[in-house]
């Protein structure tokens, strides 16, 4: 994924948008998510504006550079990752169902952009990477779910959140590079789940 261009300080200081401007902003982010998912982060900005139903000038007023658009998309991405992990923890369903739901969401998030899964996987243990902080946010979300299940006694001894992330990032990379649909990843995720769930007979 490309280097983000907007700092947290700028984000915090940003003034709220007018209602119409906010609608255009939201439409542009949604359109960018679609185009980048289909064509990678180098997808056409003109196509994004067209799908959002706005002119190129409106796009550039909100996002002067491609990196500004990607940064906004990544902020939206991290918020949805965190929300999905919280939802998985609060669902109060059996451990297997929690993992099935969360790990599928994790693969979905890691394959949001074409080529993203491999980049996230490579940056996960590389503090010098410009997307390392985004990987940490992804890891924090996964840790929320795994810690919840560990505390509930649902996982085998020694299961570590970071190792689960590495396994799932491998699945996500295969899905992305092979052009698989998400449902084709589910059998691979079942293998991961079988490996980390505690055997009820020994619980």
CATH class of the largest domain: Mainly Alpha
**What's the helix count?**
10
Alpha carbon gyration radius: 18 Å
Strand content: under 5%
In the CATH hierarchy, what is the superfamily of the largest domain? Tetracycline Repressor, domain 2
Q: Please give the alpha-carbon distance between the first and last residues.
A: 42 Å
The major sheet is characterized as: none
Query: Helix proportion of residues, in percent?
Result: over 70%
Structural class based on helices, strands and sheet pairing: mainly alpha
The second-level CATH architecture of the largest domain is Orthogonal Bundle
Shape assignment: elongated
SSE ordering: HHHHHHHHHH
What is the total tally of β strands?
Answer: 0
Question: Per CATH, what is the topology of the largest domain?
Answer: Tetracycline Repressor, domain 2
Number of domain modules: 2
Sequence stretches where pLDDT stays below 50 over 5 or more residues: 1-14
Give the rounded overall mean pLDDT. Answer: 86
Write the layout of secondary structure elements.
Blueprint: H1 8-13, H2 19-39, H3 45-52, H4 56-62, H5 66-90, H6 95-110, H7 116-123, H8 132-151, H9 161-178, H10 182-196
Can you offer a commentary on this structure?
This protein has 203 residues and is mainly alpha-helical. The chain folds into 2 domains: 15-64, Homeodomain-like (Arc Repressor Mutant, subunit A, Orthogonal Bundle); 73-202, Tetracycline Repressor, domain 2 (Orthogonal Bundle). The protein has 10 helices and no strands. It has helices at 8-13, 19-39, 45-52, 56-62, 66-90, 95-110, 116-123, 132-151, 161-178, 182-196. The longest helix has 25 residues, at 66-90. The protein is elongated, with a radius of gyration of 18 Å. 31% of the residues are buried.
């Amino acid at each position: 994924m490309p280097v983000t261009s907007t700092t947290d300080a700028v984000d915090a200081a940003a003034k709220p948008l007018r209602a119409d401007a906010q609608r255009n902003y939201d439409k542009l982010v949604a359109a960018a998510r679609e185009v980048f998912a289909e064509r990678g982060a180098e997808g056409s900005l003109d196509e994004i504006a067209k799908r959002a139903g706005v002119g190129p000038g409106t796009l550039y007023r909100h996002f002067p550079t491609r990196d500004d658009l990607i940064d906004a998309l990544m902020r939206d991405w991290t918020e949805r990752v965190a929300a999905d992990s919280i939802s998985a923890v609060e669902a109060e369903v059996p451990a297997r169902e929690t993992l099935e739901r969360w790990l599928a969401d994790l693969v979905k998030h890691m394959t949001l952009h074409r080529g993203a899964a491999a980049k996230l996987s490579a940056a996960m243990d590389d503090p010098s990477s410009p997307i390392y902080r985004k990987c940490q946010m992804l890891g924090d979300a996964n840790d929320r779910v795994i810690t919840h299940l560990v505390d509930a006694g649902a996982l085998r001894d020694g299961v570590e959140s970071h190792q689960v992330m590495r396994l799932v990032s491998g699945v996500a990379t295969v899905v992305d590079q092979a052009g698989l649909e998400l449902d084709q990843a589910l059998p691979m995720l079942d293998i991961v789940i079988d490996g980390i769930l505690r055997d009820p007979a020994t619980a």
